[in-house]
């Protein structure tokens, strides 16, 4: 533990920030997982669209707060849409 008062405060602040960041990342991952599960379960298009919209919103908000890098946010959104389009393509091929 540091001896200087301001450094002690910095340590406390960084621990609080770390906990907040971990919680935000966890929430983001949860919304991504929910979107992927909605896609996999063959839910209605409205449900999938809503899940994707919520996932996008949380990813963007996490990046906006600086918890993840904006390129990481773009990559996560891109992978999610790629997964969705792959699923749509599989359904179209199986239907024809």
Question: Can you describe what's shown?
Answer:
The protein is mainly alpha-helical and 96 residues long. The protein has one domain (5-95): Ribosomal protein S20 (Methane Monooxygenase Hydroxylase, Chain G, domain 1, Up-down Bundle). 85% of the residues lie in helices and 0% in strands. The chain contains 3 helices and no strands. The protein has helices at 5-40, 45-64, 70-95. The longest helix has 36 residues, at 5-40. The radius of gyration is 19 Å and the shape is elongated. 16% of the residues are buried. The model has no long low-confidence stretch (mean pLDDT 94).
Which helices and strands appear, and what pairs or packs with what?
Elements: H1 5-40, H2 45-64, H3 70-95
Helix pairs in contact: 1-2, 1-3, 2-3
What's the total number of strands? 0
Q: Please, what is the CATH homologous superfamily? A: Ribosomal protein S20
So what's the CATH class?
Answer: Mainly Alpha
Regarding quaternary structure, how should these chains be classified? single chain
Q: What's the gyration radius in Å? A: 19 Å
Characterize the overall form. elongated
**Main sheet properties:** none
Mean pLDDT over all positions: 94
How many alpha or pi helices? 3
How widely separated are the two ends?
A: 66 Å
The helix/strand class is mainly alpha
Low-confidence stretches: none
Portion of residues in helices? over 70%
Note the run of SSEs as H and E. Answer: HHH
CATH architecture: Up-down Bundle
Count of discrete structural domains: 1
Strand composition percent: under 5%
The name of the CATH topology is: Methane Monooxygenase Hydroxylase, Chain G, domain 1
Keywords: Ribonucleoprotein, Ribosomal protein, RNA-binding, rRNA-binding
GO molecular function: small ribosomal subunit rRNA binding; structural constituent of ribosome
Family: Belongs to the bacterial ribosomal protein bS20 family.
Protein name: Small ribosomal subunit protein bS20
């Amino acid at each position: 533990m540091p001896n200087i008062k301001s450094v002690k405060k910095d340590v406390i602040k960084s621990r609080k920030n770390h906990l907040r960041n971990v919680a935000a990342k966890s929430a983001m991952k949860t919304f991504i997982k929910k979107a992927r599960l909605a896609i996999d379960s063959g839910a209605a298009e409205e449900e999938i669209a809503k899940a994707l919209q919520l996932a996008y919103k949380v990813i963007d908000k996490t990046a906006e707060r600086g918890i993840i890098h904006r390129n990481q946010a773009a990559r996560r959104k891109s992978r999610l849409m790629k997964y969705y389009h792959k699923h749509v393509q599989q359904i179209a091929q199986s239907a024809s």
